[in-house]
Design goal:
With 774 residues, the protein is α/β, with parallel strands linked by helices. The chain contains 29 helices and 16 strands. The strands form 3 sheets. The protein has an 8-stranded mixed beta barrel with strand order 8-9-11-12-13-14-15-16, surrounded by 5 helices. A hairpin with a 2-residue loop joins strand 2 and strand 3. It is elongated, with a radius of gyration of 46 Å. The C terminus is likely disordered.
Length: 774
Amino acid sequence: MAMTGGDEVRLSTRVTFRGGLVWAMGLFLVAYVGGLALPGDAENAVVDLWLGLLTVWMPAAVCWLTVWRVGFRRWEVLLLAAAATSFAAGNTYYVLAASATGSLPFPSPGDVGYLGFYPLMLAALALTVRHRLGGLASSVWLDSAVGSLGSAAVLAVVLGPVLASSLTGSLSLATVVAVAYPMFDLLLVAAVSGIAALGGSRTGDRWGLLVGGLLVFAATDVVYALQVTGDTYAIGSPLDAGWAIGLAAVAIWGDGAARRDTQATQEARPVTGAMALVVAAMATVAGLGVLVVGSRAHVSTLAVALAGATLLAAAARTQVAFRQLVRMADLRRQATTDHLTGLPNRRALYARADARMADPEHQRKALLLLDLDRFKEVNDSLGHQAGDQLLIKVGVRLGEHLRAGDLLARMGGDEFAVLLDDGGHDEAAAVAVKLCAALAEPFALDDIAVHSSVSIGIALFPNDGRDLNTLLRKADVAMYKAKASGQGHHVYGGTDESDFSTRLQTVEELRTALAHDQLVVHYQPKIDLRTDDVHGVEALVRWDHPTRGLLYPDAFLDLVEEAGLMRALTQVVLEIALDQAAVWHAQGRRLTIAVNLSASSLVDSDLPEQVAAMLAARHLAPNALQLEITEEFLMVDRDRARNILTRLRRHGVQISVDDFGTGYSSLSYLRDLPVDELKLDRSFVFPMADDASAAALVASTIGLAHSLGLRMVAEGVETHVAYTELARLGCDQAQGYYMCRPVPAVELEHWLSTWRASDKLTDIPQPWLSVALD
């Protein structure tokens, strides 16, 4: 709420009055101290009476002005004002009565005011500590306890004569009051010492005024008590200024603390500061000193008990400190350790790498950045628990193949880093080859053999960079180069940066293509070699790039896989192909459309249900779709393959094995898995015209398929000889450039309407088929 002009005037007047009162208190105090310091033994009524009274009433006035400013909601300020007023009232009675009568009985009404100061001040201190320092750690309060007990033990020794003198004679009110003064001083000093131990916490800049003022007040009390006991005290000595100085410091602290609390919240400071440690250490030494003195001279039982309590509290504080150190060490270890593998993490790599790169003895170093290939497929197919097990085993295996001085760290996800000490280009490449070979060996995860591979990027220090950030960036570039080439590892080179930037740009363009319908599908017919009819087509994706033109799969599929976009691409291709199938079925063309699925698409456990839903949404029969998979997927994870394929077949979707014959695994999966069709790879078809053994191999493969009740489709048929020979050998279907290239749906419809087997059995395709798609 904005302040009005009247509010501003009142605020300005209040600030001016407060400042004038504080300055007046200071001036009176200086005058009083100066008057007491003047030589001469005669009592001075102006100094001892009037200035003395003003110097104790002015702090009370400052405190009440603070109460008026902050209101009665701050009990510690109210108690502080009451304590100062109680002392000033007691002192007024004492001074005036002594001046009038020359002597006072003990105890007198003045002692009520004096003694009232202590419980009120202690209560104000307790509320202040609770208000400002609530929620501190136990170690901080132990520091405070050690400081309080140690100082109390020392003071108990100092006040020993006072206590002994006060306790002589029978118990009476005078004895109780006489003992109350040193005991209250003991409590006050203990409280102040405890507060001093909290000085490194959230206490504010003027906390020293409170501590210093109360220490001066308590010290004046102690000296006064000792002088009275020794009958050496004289009114009008400089000692009398001690109470006024202490009260003035406390009043200034209260005024400043209340003002700051109304303006802003205190900023948090460290939980334990240097002051806490210093006070606790001094208190511990003091406690030991009291016990040592007590073993050689008589000290009070109270002093010995307080010294013993100090050492017990110090021992507890030491135990807490030890636990804190252990916890800090454990937290530091956790902060630099990967929680899954137990290897150093990225933070530890940065810390240790910087130290090693600054070592002048071993200047040659190499950073290897490792990324597991297709790790996401393991997570998706076997679950995250299996993925975690794989990462743990990878970490162990990597460590087994590194030297003791090499630093292995997990960067996060499926990325690891190795910093080789004293290693150049050749040494780093040799280590990379060794690590690739080690990780190529299968891992046993819950009785499942999982095959893994890794791509490694290498950056050299200091040639490729003199700091870890630069080396990591260039190793990352090299790693993507290794992944793209499939060679396992790659050492960073000068031209890699631009290649990497191009790949990143292409990945972003791919994301745009998926979102903005830049992907198109071409179709290649599959010819029935017995009837020359066309019952199915294969859907092949193309990228209609806005600047580079029509791109074939080999230009972008690897990037799609690396960027984790294969599922999205498969979804788009399925939607386009099934939409086209629905159009053809509505026109009376009952064509089955075959769509290729990558291994990363087939690890999706929801795939069968998704495919069934897409068919149902277009009112297509399940046999309108055929999914082509590779032998690689069937071999790597046969149990997974059986589960996915069985569910697809249950929905009525046909399954075809693409590139059949290129694998080197057992063919028993043909008996175990629900497969409808085999597609003979073009590498078998092409040499048939000139190689009798190749033709014999094709014939035996066709026979194998038929014996298992499977269709055989030959890919890559490009000549009349291959076409007629495949028909003679009993192959069921064929597809290839000889009959028709992959073409857009409109061109395929034209081709279907003009297709005649008798016209096509020549070596020269009809001219209209020479479309620009090669």
